[in-house]
Design a protein that fits this description.
- This protein has helices at 2-15, 33-42, 127-131, 155-170, 187-192, 199-215, 255-274, 290-299, 301-308, 318-323; strands spanning 50-55, 60-66, 72-79, 82-83, 101-106, 110-111, 119-121, 140-142, 151-152, 175-181, 221-224, 227-230.
- The protein is of the alpha+beta class.
- It has one domain (14-323): L,D-transpeptidase catalytic domain-like, CATH 2.40.440.
- It has a 5-stranded mixed beta sheet with strand order 3-2-1-10-5, with helices on both faces.
- β2 (60-66) and β3 (72-79) form a beta hairpin.
- Residues 50-181 form the L,D-TPase catalytic domain.
- Its EC number is 2.-.-.-.
């Protein structure tokens, strides 16, 4: 029996960051007064819609809040303590990859009983990923500093994030969008990674990144033709088969936005002609924000784990976190 339980626990660990729930429901901390003041300054309030962006290489998570004009303003950027895998999308259970793509999180995906303090499920695999045959489950944003495919934000960090998104969902936002990227998708960064096998996928998700950068409005996300399609309305409604060719579009693109996106495409094309690709880094395992890496180097893994979480989870693969395979990119 114990052997069977051990095998089951190992399978869960490999499939994502799933852990057995804690015995009690944890109430998230109140939204800090500084964050509420920052919302007011940006023209939003705690009940206003929220949007999250995640950047692996930079090990950062951004929380954005919608203002009265319907645009999003950056509320706060959080350093990420740990993520696992490497740059690129998650494709199968056990690959330790943290997901990349577009996800929509509802209230039912929040977990106030997480053994990683608090967490919310990204909803991987989404419709497109499921159609492509990608596998995995329980890919989360959570506390502590341990990852096997998730984004670990420390207890304090996830406490703030959780309280902000919970308040927005309670205020009437049906789902909030999470945009997860390998890096900040500037033309310069894309050109550096032009030799990566994931480049075509990154060009696709960069379209959503560029739309948000240009408009500060949440892009509408569809899936057809084996890719994401943004801000498009279709004659017969949303495409039902992400693998089939995209149906005829009926929406008229905004001319100003199209011009800005075309300018970004031209900039990338020029940089790809003139810039040398970044050398491929030896795979270690994921990343850690420099602020946490400095603490890990100074204090060691046990002291850092105790400092940033009360859940007693050790830092995952601390040697790999210290190696920083993305330095210099």
């Amino acid at each position: 029996m114990r052997h069977a339980l051990a095998i089951g626990a190992m399978a869960l660990a490999l499939s994502g960051c799933m852990a057995l729930d804690a015995d009690d429901v944890r109430e998230p901390p109140p939204i800090p007064a500084k964050l509420i003041a920052a919302m007011a300054k940006n023209g939003s309030k705690p009940e206003s819609p929220v949007l999250i962006r995640i950047f692996k290489q930079e090990s950062e998570l951004e929380v954005w809040k919608q203002n009265k004009q319907g645009q999003y303003a950056l509320l706060k950027s959080y350093p990420m303590c740990r993520w696992s895998g490497k740059l690129g999308p998650k494709m199968k259970s056990g690959d330790r990859q943290a997901p990349e793509g577009f996800y929509h999180v509802s209230a039912g995906m929040l977990n106030p009983k997480s053994q990683y303090f608090l967490s919310f499920n990204l909803g991987y695999p989404n419709r497109l990923e499921s159609a492509l045959g990608y596998t995995g489950e329980a890919l989360m944003v959570h506390g502590a500093c341990s990852s096997s495919g998730c984004y670990a934000m420390t207890d304090q960090g996830v406490g703030e994030i959780y309280s902000v998104v919970q308040r927005a969902l309670a205020g009437g936002q049906g789902t909030f969008q999470v945009q997860a990227y390998p890096f900040r998708m500037t033309a310069e960064n894309m050109a550096k990674h032009r030799g990566d096998p994931n480049f075509d996928f990154w060009k696709n998700i960069k379209q959503g990144y560029d739309i948000f950068e240009a408009t500060k409005r949440q892009p509408k996300v569809s899936a057809c033709g084996r890719r994401y399609v943004f801000n498009t309305d279709f004659a017969d409604g949303e495409p039902s088969d992400p693998l089939a060719a995209c149906p005829a579009a009926i929406s008229t693109p905004d001319a100003g936005l199209v011009a800005r996106l075309q300018s970004e495409d031209a900039k990338l094309a020029g940089m790809m002609t003139n810039q040398t690709s970044a050398p491929l880094n030896a795979y270690v395992d994921g990343g850690m924000h420099p602020s946490f890496r400095a603490l890990l180097e100074k204090n060691g893994a046990e002291k850092l784990a105790a400092k940033i979480s009360g859940t007693k989870y050790p830092i995952s693969r601390p040697e790999a976190a210290l190696a920083d395979p993305y330095a210099g990119l």
